[in-house]
Each structure stands twice: as structure tokens, then as C-alpha cells.
Amino acid sequence: MEIKVMDIVGRKSYNCDLLFRVIDIRKINNQNVAILYGEDFRLVADAPYTDLIVINQDDRVKLRQEYRTLEEQSLKLFTQEVELIKSRQEYEATGGYAKQSNYFQIPGKVLHLDGDPSYLKKCMTLYEKIGIPVLGIHCGEKEMPEKIGGLIDHYRPDILVITGHDAYSKAKGKVTDINAYRHSKHFVQTVKEARKKVPHLDQLVIFAGACQSHFESLIYAGANFASSPSRINIHALDPVYIVAKISFTPFMERINVWDVLRNTLTGEKGLGGIDTRGVLRTGMPYRPILAEDE
Questions:
Q1: What is the rounded distance in angstroms from the CA atom of residue 256 to the CA atom of residue 273?
Q2: Dihedral angle at the C-alpha atoms of 150, 155, 156, 160, nearest 10 degrees?
Q3: Please, what's the largest Cα pairwise distance for the chain?
Q4: How far apart are CA 215 and CA 233, in angstroms?
Q5: Distance, CA of 183 to CA of 189 (rounded, Å)
Q6: Three-class secondary structure of residue 2 per DSSP
Q7: Cα–Cα distance between 180 and 203 in angstroms, integer?
Q8: What sign results for the dihedral spanned by CA atoms 44, 46, 49, 50?
């Protein structure tokens, strides 16, 4: 069967363990090689054309069922946690319900840069469902360092997400060598440029990285949270769960790293970070402007 760009495929040599989207087909050493983006994980890979098989819709549904179940479970747990946070905030804002004062809350604004437009769309849908103000921008990983400064000046986010696709290649060097990674060095440089604009770790909270990214370099560059400590694949939606937790945690509270990671799809092997303050702010009174007031 002919394989075309944007087809969903599996790698026969890996027993089709992951679904990939074909983004390009190139001739390398007289061999057709496909460039692949993971459908559920933020992994970029290449594979010989002959190693690929097109996955039809029925098989695709079966292969994705496990991931969909994990997504639903994680979203359910996180939604429950958000409701608990909101209930506690309501209790504290009203003096333990003794005062029925109207109040309002301002969650942290998110600027999300993503190297994959498909993943960005999935993330934006989840941000909207949770209720987080966000500006999502599709930007190639290599272009991110040049563009991040102007975007921060324009949008002034509380939380910055720098993500897309990445991968470690043993053939290119040791696991400690950042040059052995597809896009880690671009993520690192983007974090450094962001920190030139906002140096303080609690004034701009940064998540950076994708599948198998060079975790240590991202943290030392100035990221609060990053992937991937054990160089494993991370799920497309993991960054959203992390920044949502930060966005809904009051700015006077310190976030325990494990509290952030426990409801993600990947967990501590794929994600890590440092203690960070939340960014939610509560105010009062809340009085909507009515037509007769104008």
C-alpha cells in the first residue's frame, strides 16, 4: 500500500506499538525514509519506508483505546482536584462561609508554544474545558528562541509552555550530550531567552520539553518543570495538566512537585520540576456591570 504524507502508520519492527503521522518522505542514501510525529506522544522519529504500514480507522481506534482511557481517568482526577481547590478558595474568601461576600478569581494566563499544530489543537480544547485563559501559537521548534521575547512582551503570560517534538538518538552521542537530541537545544535556548525577559522563577512559570528531552539542561536553563527525567515519551496533553495545576493554585501557596505530577499521564519518569508558587489570585467584591448602571 502506498504511504503518503499525513497517513497514520505503525512501525513493523516495533510491532506497531505507537501510532505515527507521516509528515515528510525523503530520499536518504538512496532509500525512502519517512519522518514521523507521534499521534499521542510528543515523539519525532524516522523510519525506512519499507518498515511502515498504514493503520486503518478500525485498528486505529483499538490501538488508541488504552490511551483514551488514560486520558479520561486523568481528566476526571484533575477535574475533581480543581473543584476541591475552588471549594477551598471559596471557603477562605468568604471567611469560612460566615460572610457571603461576592468574590472573583483570576487564574494564571498561559502562553503555549507548540511545534505541532495537531497537538496544539488538542491542548487548546482541554484548556477551554478546564477554564484557563490561554494564547496558543504554532511555532517550529527551531524558530522558538527568536520569537519568544516578542511574544512575552506582547502577551505578558504568567505561565509559559514550550513544547513540540523531541527524541534522543543513541547514534548521535551519549544521553548526557544535548546534541544527541532532536530539539532539546532549541527548547533550552528558548527557556534562556524567556528568562532574559523574566528572570524570577515565580513571576513566570515555565514548562519546557517533549518526548525524551534533556531534562537537566532545561531545568538549569530556568524551567520550573520539564521533561524527561528518564528519557521516556510524554503524552501530548501532559503539559496542560501541569500548567492547569499551577494556574489554579493560589499565589501564596507553594506547589509540591509530586502534587503536580500525580495526575499527569506520564508521571515522574517523564516529568519533573522544582517547588513553585501558584499564580491564582482572588479578589472582591464581584459586581457585574448591569445595563441600567451604564
A1: 9
A2: -80
A3: 76
A4: 12
A5: 10
A6: coil
A7: 32
A8: negative
Query: Reduced to 3 states, what is the DSSP secondary structure of residue 144?
Result: helix
The tens digit of pLDDT for each residue in 239-288 reads: 888 888 899 888 888 988 888 887 777 888 999 999 999 999 887 776 66
C-alpha cell at 71: 486520558
Residue 275 grid coordinates: 517547588
Closest CA to 204 of 229, 222, 230: 222
The position carrying cell 448591569 is 290
The Cα-based distances of 239 to 73, 76, 132, 186, 264 in angstroms read 16, 16, 13, 17, 8
The pLDDT tens digits for 131-186 are: 899 999 999 999 999 999 999 999 999 999 999 999 999 989 999 999 999 999 99
Which comes out higher in pLDDT, residue 215 or 65?
215
For residue range 85-114, list pLDDT tens digits in order: 667 766 666 665 445 567 778 889 999 999
